[in-house]
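Hi everyone, sorry if this is the wrong subforum. Our group has a chain we'd like a structural model of before ordering constructs, and none of us has done structure prediction before. Sequence below.
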Amino acid sequence: MQPQLSPFDGVLLIDKPAGMTSHDVVDRVRRHFGFKKVGHCGTLDPAATGLLILVLERATKLQDRLMSDDKAYEGAMILGVSTDSQDADGAIIAEKPVPPLTAEDIEEVLAKFRGDIQQIPPMVSAVKYRGTPLYKLARKGKTVEREPRLIHIYDLRVLGLELPRITFRVACTKGTYVRTICSDVGDLLGCGAHLHELRRTRSGKFDVNEAHQLQAVVALTREELKPLIIPILKFVGSSAA
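Answer:
Right subforum, don't worry. Here is the predicted structure as tokens:
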């Protein structure tokens, strides 16, 4: 006989603030509410904000399924400056003048990224090389050859253009490195680029507008948290729970 489900077996949507790792958010929620199990469905870099899906207690069984969903982001890249991590947290490795690009010039390059593409993961990433995460090798100043990965970009468009800053929207499959897209776009434009800001706006069927601010969540009691939790039965049948 299956144990009865708890009101805490479910999904909690958090709007992650900048400056925290995804694990920091998980740990804070777990400790504050005394949960035994909390997981997240797709890492956001510390500087990134937006939708972070948390799975609580028995809903951690859903982690792999929800993590595999497509994602959407809004962000900003800065042309003319390349960094070793491909984002604003890295050390500057090259600076080049930004040519007088037009919207048409940029669209021509962005079009090359839509659809199925092969993407080489950045050295500063959790992808493993012979059992060791790449970021650990990068910290030692090592660079190794990485196998390209097939990803799919459903949408990549400019939202605002104020050179050297380009704001954009991207919708993509899981495992896509948006900072690598920015770096590669910059290379094709001839001046380099890095990701300056990133916000996850969607993951699967969930939207960041449905998410809750972390500070507000951890100000609640366990009883007050219940209405914010999406029950596990919304995702699986009672026989599968």
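For your construct planning: Residues 22-33 form the longest helix (12 residues). The mean pLDDT is 92.
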